[in-house]
Structures are given as C-alpha cells and as structure tokens.
Design goal:
two-stranded antiparallel ribbon; 3% strand
Length: 417
C-alpha cells in the first residue's frame, strides 16, 4: 500500500496548493503530479477517466479493490484466530492438558510436527478447537476496561508541554500534551500499588506498607488483585480485545466517513479497504486522540507491564525466580521506557502521519502486540528458561549494548546506515 495513490483527501476551500493535486493523508502529493499540472477540475481528455476515478476514490484500490486483493480477507480471519491460538498454547489450561495430547509444545519439531503429519485430521481439528476455546469473560473484559480507564485518567490529568505533529495537506496541525514519561512511571506505580504486592496485600507478600490507621481504612474496602493478573486472565482478555478491536474499527470507519475530526479523511471506494486501512488520519472523541491512546497508552503500557506480571506468576508457580524471564521483563520494560521518552517522535512517524486509523493498525495494537510481542515471555511462565543468573545477565547486557550501538549508529549516520 504505497505510492502516489495511497491517500484520498477532501480538498479544503481556498487552498490552491492543496487543490492543485490529489494529496495524501500524510501531507505529500503524489510523485507523478508536477507543480505546474492542470487543476483536476479541467483535466486533459486523456486523463478525464483517471480524474473521475480519483473523485470517486476508486483509484486508491487500483482497479478492483478487495476483489483484486483477496489476501486482505486473511487479516480479518486468520490473524484473530492465530492470536487466540497463541494465547491458548501459553495458558495454564493448555499446560494442564499437554500430557494427554501426546506431544509437547516445547518440542515442535520432534513431537508436534510428527504427530500432526501422522494425524492430519485430528491435528487440524485440535488446532481449531484450541483456538475457538479461547473466549471472552467478564473478568477479561473488566481487566481491559479498568486498564483503559486508568490510562484515560492519566492521559487527562497529567500535565505536559504542548507539542505538535507535522501539518497535513489540509492544513491541520495535530496537538498533543507531552506527558508520556509521566504516564509510563505513574501507571507502573499504580499497577504495583493496587496488586497484592502493594500495601493491601498479604503480610508475607506485600512490598509496601501503610500506617496502620490508613491501611485499615483503605484495605478494609479494597481487595487487591494478583500481580500476575495479566497472565492469569490473558486468554479471556485477548478474546475480549479481539471482539472490542473489530467493533472499534467499525466505529472508526463510520466516524471517518460521516463525522471526521479533520478534513484528512475519505473513502477508498471499497468498504473492505476502508475498514482495513481506515477512513480518517487523526480521529478524536471529546478531544482524545484515539490513535495515541490505543497505540501508546494502552498497547505499549500493556506490553511493558506484562513481562513483570508473567515473571511474578512464574515465581509463584515454580517457587523460584527464572532469571531468563526476569531479565527479559527488565529489558522490555527499559525498552518501552525509552519509547515513552521518544513518544513525540513516534507521533511524527509514518504510523501516525501516514497510516490511517483502521483495522491494520488499531486492531494490531489492541490485539497483535499483546498476543505476539509478549509471546516469548508468556511461554516461559509454564516452560522456564533454565538460564543461570550469569548467563541471563550476559544476554541482557549483550541485548542492551546492541540496542545502544544501533541507536548510536543511526544517530551518527543520520539514518543512512
């Protein structure tokens, strides 16, 4: 989905430069449009059909739309199922049933593959049943909604400097409160304090304490959750996120077409393409930037805290600390701290200034990031890494050093490396 026909903006009155050529949601005009091109209202006869196609939006999908790109349907069917399957194979329920299956997920080549090759029908049926067994629950939904509610409160209440993104072709300049770093540390603190490791946890587990007078008042009415809740409720949480993401993207499609926040919106001429790619560049509801909220304040924060939650569940399950999982959680946490320091840079990247708010990005951040980006850490809960402290520390140092060298190389060469 690249090239000059990627965007389809409505023209704003009085903007001659914008009206002179069909320009994109990210701001750049098509490469094929020269500065002295004739206005679209009076195209040469040879280009009349092309101009008419642009006005109707059909040029965006290059003649045929979804009919010419059937693989796009895979995004709506295969990806959600795969995310559910990954949630199932890392769950406690799957670990409990593994001995009965005749193969172990830790041995994909020596056990799982031979079993499937010798029992294709049974294997296919088992995979289908496994994926469909992951269903939403009230607990999973309440976790997601509480997580988002906390992120929303921090988004609205934390102060920060006003920053802007690049101006679009329609003249819109997005504005943001730069409070990502504050959100990063405040959310982590709230997640810890509200758990059984906080002041309301059991005496033998909590890491923090309150004065007895205050503790009695607060903890008498508040029941803390397990710090391992992100693992415990992960399958049902992901199932709910799948449904929520699909419906949320339907809302975004409708909003971009009929109630856009800016003029950076429009249809592609294909309903499926509109749903997948999006119909609006900067959707907002009551002033809340939906792309930043989903991509950063929910998705990145969930990923950041998931490693620690998984590490805690592993410790409680096996009675000892898995150093491989511990340093994996630490490296992911530090990596995402770095992300929040750079959040305004992300708000000026292709994900934000070019890609519209559709299924491909919004569902991806809601579901694919939690399901896939945390898979290795989630897998280690039931299947400990077995790494010693020195070995795990060495890998951690190697990874952090590599990340630092890559950043220095990029900055030194200004992205030309």
């Amino acid at each position: 989905m690249s090239g000059g026909h990627r965007y389809n903006l409505r023209k704003r009155p009085g903007a001659a430069a914008a009206a002179a050529s069909p320009s994109g949601g990210g701001g750049a005009a098509p490469a094929s449009a020269a500065p002295d091109s004739p206005p679209p209202s009076s195209p040469p006869p040879a280009k009349a059909k092309e101009a008419e196609s642009y006005e109707s939006g059909t040029n965006w999908v290059h003649g045929g739309g979804i009919e010419a790109n059937p693989y796009l349907f895979v995004l709506i069917v295969v990806s959600p199922f795969l995310s559910l399957l990954l949630a199932h194979v890392t769950s406690a329920e799957f670990a409990a049933s593994a001995p009965e299956s005749g193969w172990r997920v830790t041995h994909p080549l020596t056990e799982a593959a031979p079993y499937c090759l010798s029992n294709l029908g049974s294997c296919a049926r088992g995979v289908l049943e496994a994926g469909l067994s992951v269903r939403p629950s009230r607990d999973g939904a309440s976790l997601v909604l509480a997580f988002m509610a906390a992120a929303l409160v921090l988004e609205r209440s934390l102060p920060g400097k006003i920053e802007t993104g690049p101006e679009t072709a329609t003249g819109h300049v997005p504005r943001y409160v730069d409070n990502g770093v504050k959100h990063c540390f405040a959310f982590a603190a709230l997640f810890l304090l509200g758990s059984d490791l906080g002041p309301c946890g059991e005496a033998g587990e909590r890491m923090l304490s309150l004065p007895s007078s205050i503790e009695g008042t607060i903890c008498g009415v508040y029941q803390p959750y397990s710090f391992g809740i992100l693992y415990d409720r992960f399958p049902s949480t992901l199932a709910f996120l799948n449904l929520f993401g699909i419906v949320f993207c339907m809302f975004l499609t409708y909003k971009g077409l009929y109630h856009p926040s800016t003029q950076d919106n429009g249809s592609s001429g294909s309903w499926v393409k509109d749903y997948l790619w999006g119909t609006e560049l900067y959707p907002r509801v009551f002033g809340l930037d939906l792309k930043r909220f989903v991509n950063c304040r929910f998705s990145m924060t969930f990923w950041q805290l998931a490693g620690w939650s998984f590490c805690y569940r592993s410790y409680r399950l096996h009675g000892e600390l898995d150093w491989g999982l511990f340093f994996a959680a630490l490296s992911q946490y530090l990596y995402l701290v770095k992300f929040f320091f750079w959040e305004m840079g992300y708000m000026r990247s292709i994900d934000i200034i070019v890609d519209r708010a559709g299924y491909e990005i919004q569902w991806g951040c809601l579901v694919w990031v939690p399901a896939v980006y945390t898979f290795h850490s989630r897998f280690c809960v039931q299947n400990p890494s077995g790494l010693t402290f020195p070995a795990a520390l060495a890998l951690f140092v190697l990874g952090i050093t590599g990340l630092g060298l890559l950043r220095d190389m990029f900055c030194t060469t200004k992205g030309s490396c």
